Amino acid sequence: MKQYPDPRFQPPSAMDYPRFSGVPSFMRLPLIAPEDAAKAGVDIGILGVPWDSGTTNRPGARHGPRQLRDLSTMIRSTHAVSEISPFAQTNVADLGDVSVNPTDTADTLGRVELVYKSLVLNGIVPLTAGGDHLISLPVLRGVAQNGPVAMIHFDSHTDLNDTYFNGDKYTHGTPFRRAIEEGLIDPQKVVQIGIRGTNYEGLEDIAWGKAQGVRIITIEEYFARGYADVMAEARAIVGDAPTYVSFDIDYVDPSFAPGTGTPEIGGPNTFECQQVIRALRGLNLVGADMVEVSPPFDPSGGTAWVGVSLIFELLCVLSDATATRRFA
Description:
Layout: H1 37-40, E1 44-49, H2 64-72, H3 86-89, E2 92-97, H4 105-121, E3 125-130, H5 136-143, E4 149-154, H6 175-181, E5 185-195, H7 204-212, E6 215-218, H8 219-225, H9 227-238, E7 243-248, H10 270-278, E8 285-291, H11 302-326
Helix pairs in contact: 2-11, 4-5, 5-6, 10-11
């Protein structure tokens, strides 16, 4: 019988143990191996996937999980607005990093898929820190074992491209095209928010996505309507379906988060990013990721601080959904 709150899964109080001290884990949570998570009673596992070999231009996101962990020691335990305390209602642990192969894409995708399939089969909800956006594909292979899921995707880019360079189908610009083709996500229940920036010739990714039924909301539409109206539509599209959330840090305007591989100007500020995640509360959330934080482009850690603050926002709504399912 699981205990809530379980003292094993409580981050130490910053009043007793200063936040700058100790070995950094995500939010100073206990570090548990993925294979031991179910036995330990973990509800939500936070994992790093330190891999960026799907990157087509500026690499560095492989270093994201480590810097995100370091900055996460600043996070306290309770959300100031929603008053959600994820550690009081769910057992959350840092499950470490997936062992990746930086020289072999297929091997890495297989390794990530195996880990996430095992976690989901054991009832553990994954919250992932990347890594480039290709990591979402094997994560979804784990999450969508019982059929396609809905997805709300915050990004500057659709990541619906078909191939890059010499016909390569597996890059950080292709994960959601592959996910639709593999039946991992239902394109009729996919919402992409914040799309902007220059495009390749022909706008093929956008045309293909719309033909599948993907709802693509450009940044111009987002600002014209406001985040509340946009999120009301997103909620209506996914309904009560099991829903995955993917958040690329380049969704945030680069004046707030410059440390990413493909920045695009004209994006939302950090307050608006908090609001769109908070608007996910009450949905049937089954996993989430934060990707493309690239420390080499922001060694100060400012981008990682934005990223991990939004990971905490994601953790709160994931925790609320997980606790709700427990009593359903």
